[in-house]
Amino acid sequence: MNDLRYVYAVCRPFEAALQSDLVGVGGAPLKQLAHGGLVAVLSQVPEADFGYEPLRAHLEDLDWLTGTARAHQAVIAALTTVTCPVPLRLGTVFRDDSGVRTMLQDEGEQLRELLSRIDGCVEWGVKVYAEPTSEPEQAEVPQHGPSASGRDYLRMRRARQQGADRMWARAESFADKLHRDLTARAAATRLHRPQNPELSRVSGRNILNGAYLVGRSASEEFVECVERTKDQEPELRVELTGPWAAYSFSSPDSENGEEVW
């Protein structure tokens, strides 16, 4: 079997050197393939692992998938320090160099447009989780008479529900304002679907899951804006991740989120 070409990202030609010890999937050395004013960053991988059927089987192997994803991300993270790459999906492979050149030729117009849109920018992720820490104070239930106890029980339930409604309203208002403030500091935004806590295994209800494309020179102000909000509401948790390559802005339908430029 021949080696295939595993492509990590496409970018414009760059002169800055990547770290000398950087390698790709499986420890393979990296290579730059230029065509039509674009550069594909790739490495060679064995067809026995990355052919269509073997790759499908490997994607069911969590250990293999984790190691491959880490190597993939390491290359893109390194590229992000020296340029603004368009990251490709995990496991993007071609038969040979000719196949990579054909991709660059066929998709060149769209790739150049994407590179122009993300030029000079990085992606930041901001999530807000609601984590109620207390319940509304409960009135003491009188000890005399079933009717009085019943009325107080209903009143207590109504007070608890009203308190919860107020808390969720504050949370939604907080998230909406934060998103507006961050959008004003971003070149583009994308709202992803809230995370499912059963899948993410993260505590709290996710009420904001936003991606923000921010100029490198504006990133410090953007981060400060997020940091200032972290202690404003004790029952809300604000998480900031990044800077990343522009994953959420490198295809028109990434995760079907709502994108605003």
Tell me the total number of β-strands: 10
Poorly predicted ranges (pLDDT <50, ≥5 residues)?
136-141
Tally of helical segments? 8
The chain-level mean pLDDT equals: 87
Distance separating the two termini: 45 Å
What shape does the CA trace take?
elongated
Largest sheet: 5 strands, antiparallel
The number of domains is 2
Multimeric status of the protein: single chain
Structural class: alpha+beta
Helix content: 25-40%
**Percent in strands:** 15-25%
Over all CA atoms, what is the radius of gyration? 25 Å
Compact description:
This protein is an alpha+beta fold and 261 residues long.
Looking at this protein, list some descriptive labels.
10 strands, GvpL/GvpF, 39% helix, 2 domains, alpha+beta, 5-stranded antiparallel sheet, 261 residues, Alpha-Beta Plaits, 25% strand, GvpL/GvpF family gas vesicle protein, gas vesicle
Please characterize this protein's 3D structure.
The chain is an alpha+beta fold. Helices cover 39% and strands 25% of the residues. Strand 2 and strand 3 form a beta hairpin. The radius of gyration is 25 Å and the shape is elongated. Mean pLDDT is 87; it is low at 136-141. Belongs to the gas vesicle GvpF/GvpL family. This is GvpL/GvpF family gas vesicle protein. Pfam families: GvpL_GvpF (PF06386).
